[in-house]
Model the fold of this input.
Amino acid sequence: MSEPAMVVRNISDTARWAAVFRANETQRPDALFRDPYAARLAGALGVDIANTLPHGNSYAWAWVARTYLFDQFILHEIQQGVDMVINLAAGLDARPYRMQLPPALQWVEIDLPEILTYKEAILAGENPTCRLERICLDLSDVEARKPVFAEFAGRATKIMVLTEGLLIYLESSQVIALAKDLAGHPQFRRWILDMHSPGLLRLMQRTTGKQLSQVGAPFKFGPREGPQFLESYGWRAVEVQGLLKTAARFKRPPFGLRLLSRLPEKKGVQGSRPWSGVCLFERVDRHK
Done:
């Protein structure tokens, strides 16, 4: 049998894939969140991607748990006084529309022009609940992003950064450079990100990652140190929530994984054990 035709064209198409899972969760009577825009944003291409990628639908529970945890962390930090949210590689995230946010909150989305142009067209008739702006920028261009970060640092006092589904596509050196750039501004106070263990990274590389590698979007980042990886670069983890444990609370994973979820969650170095989680980091002033 021949392999299914390639549907994913580039890294931006993975945003449509993620939107499919948000749309499916929204349809559940016990949904952990509701995203009424996700189905439109995913489109037919998003459904095709989920259905043709190897194991493309197998880990819907993990995507749902990740979205839920990001939502919870975001709401809590806004209650603690965050006055700007910067979503790096924002993709098709619709939080500024679907969440009840303070009208004065500044929300900035940064991503490649193609995905943001598509998103603006789909959401053209909708109104965000806060002050939203979008910046077209290739985040891999270090020299281009630095003045952008500096500009926003001058417009707020307590900034929170989101990198949902981004770091796994970066080399360790690129993650370090990004961490240093963000930590270079004291206004960047919080950073929410998702992280994977080396064991899970290898598993993903053998399945879904094979096709994504062919379109220039290979899975790369899964540090042996876990969340402690960023401690040398200005960021300290203050809360870490595993995706499997979270999903199991709401009976989202398949039965076999629910049994696995009962095991104690290992802290720190994860090694070959498959693990992923959402982490809340705080900036650390290394000059104190």
The CA atoms of residues 102 and 239 lie 24 Å apart.
